[in-house]
Structure formats: structure tokens, C-alpha cells
Specification:
It is a single chain. The protein has 173 residues and is of the alpha/beta class. Helices cover 49% and strands 14% of the residues. Strands 3-2-1-4-5 form a 5-stranded parallel beta sheet, sandwiched between helices. Helix 1 packs parallel to helix 2. The radius of gyration is 16 Å and the shape is globular. The two termini are 17 Å apart.
Amino acid sequence: MTVTQLRNALVVITGASSGIGRCAAHEFARHGARLVLAARDDEALVSVVQECERLGARALAVPTDVTRNEAMENLAERAADFGDGRIDIWVNNAGVGAVGCFEDTPLAVHEQVVQTDLLGYLRGAYVVLPYFKAQTSGILINTLSLGSWVAQPYAAAYSAAKYGLRGLTEALR
């Protein structure tokens, strides 16, 4: 997709309230895309929507927890409604991390990292692929990191999730 084709393209970004997601939202906004921005932080989402609108984009905030199936289904439905039935680009970007000795980090924290950083992306792909297939086009972007190639001893669950995300991405391709 060229920069020109981004004008009015419907772009969904998870983890849009900060970091890479927020920067991506700004960049897509500068190119005239319609944005559906998702994250858990309602207030931050409203702020990002306002920033994108000041850049000339139409944007919609959809508070979303990527660890919940029904929340991701809702995100896809709201995005398609906002995009007049289309979703052109889906950016799986939501992420969390836990740094510390593996055995000193509570198991629930490790599980939350895998739920968000791997299974959240799987859920995103699962809900958007039917739209892509029906319209015979679409771009799925999974945000990877160095942790996808180099294991990080003090971030075991993050490394596991990102290595798995590399496999998921390749399998879907």
C-alpha cells in the first residue's frame, strides 16, 4: 500500500495509547487514514484520538483488552462499522512485559505477558482475517521486537511470547 492509498484506509491499532502504537497512529493520521484506536486506558485513548483529529484524521477510540475474546470481536465489528464494512490494515501492537528473575516473578504475571503479547495478537488475526478474505485484501502487521530473535534471560515470558509470535506470523503468511 502506498502513502497515497492510505488516504481514507481503515486502520486498526491495538496498544494505541502509548509508545509505538501512539506514534503509528500519528503517522497514519498524517497520511489521512481513518483510525480505530484500541487500548485499555480510556483517557489516553481519548487523548490520542484528539491528537489524530488535529492532524486531520477521523478517529474512533474503542477501549479494548486484547486478552478477552469478546473485546476483540467487538473491536473488529466497531472498526468495520467505522470503515463502511472494510478493514484495510490491522496493527497488533498491544504489549506488556515483566522483568526479573523467572522464579521470583509471579506465575500470573508471566501468564499476563503471554496472554497479551502472543494470544492477543492471535485474537487480532482471528477476528480480522474473515474481513480480509471477504474483501480479498488487507494488511496484518504484528509488532515484533529484538525479543523475537534474542532470548532475554530476565524477560522469559516476553521472549517466549515474541518467539511464538514470530512463528504465528510466519504460519499466517
